[in-house]
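Bit of a strange request maybe. I'm writing a small parser for structure token strings and I need a real example to test against, not something I typed by hand. Could someone generate the tokens for this chain?
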Amino acid sequence: MDRGSFAGENPRPPPGRRRLLLFLSAGHCGSPSGPGVAARRCLSALGDWEGLRAGPSALPTGHGGAAKCQPVPLGVAGAAGAFHHVCHGPAGALASSRRELSLSAGYPQLERKRKEFTSSGSRKLYFDTHALVCVLEENGFTTQQAEIIVSALVKIIDANMDIIYKDMVTKMQQEITLQQLMSQISNVKKDMIILEKSEFSALRAENEKIKLELHQLKQQVMDEVIKVRTDTKLDFNLEKSRVKELYSLNERKLLEMRTEMVALHAQQDRAVTQTDRKIDTEVAGLKTMLESHKLDNIKYLAGSVFTCLTVALGFYRLWI
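Reply from user aminoacidic:
Good idea to test on real output. This should exercise your parser:
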């Protein structure tokens, strides 16, 4: 991966001081004006330590310095993240659209190249350590304290960059992997074309045959449905006419029964009338007979009474 031009170590300063210079270009550091601006940011943040110094014996910790100098690794981390997105974007799109594509042989090689990429070369510095040491000395730190702070910052930045490099590959590795993927995709396309010419044609013929059989079956089903509908309509009409005939026959029978009932009622009325007349006649005859018997009884009684009176008068006259 191209990271810009780096400067090596500068000649050593006078005894008791070290100078390690390495500059990172503005395009890779995330700074618009080069490594000097990033260094000045760290130095302006570290200038606040002056009020916390308790004396020459008090050694400031590197944790605060690491926290103040976070913009430098964050800029590099941003560039690394963008590069990681560029590297893995096409590969991810191709991986999502591939079908039964085997990459089992490419991944171990990619992991080996990542390890070579992270471990190759000596440790790099991303800011001017000598300038930072000088600024710390100008702000009241001793040479040993300034070097300890700068070494702590360098270790923190190296640790962050190691974490970032674990997910990064070079452009050459990206292009090689992309070419491998494209070649495998082209092979898959060729296989698909061959399948389309051989198996797909057979599938199309079989599909056409199935369509024809389905059309014939559909026609047979339609004919059967029409036949069933015709038979059903005929049976329905026959049943309807039979029901009408039964209804008319029942109506005639009902009319005949009504006529017979009327005749029976009339006959019963005539019989009742005749019976009433006979009863009235018999009652009238009985009444006449009763009256005649009553007159006869009165006559017999009157004769008996007169006879008894006559006998009584005769005995009375004889007695006297």
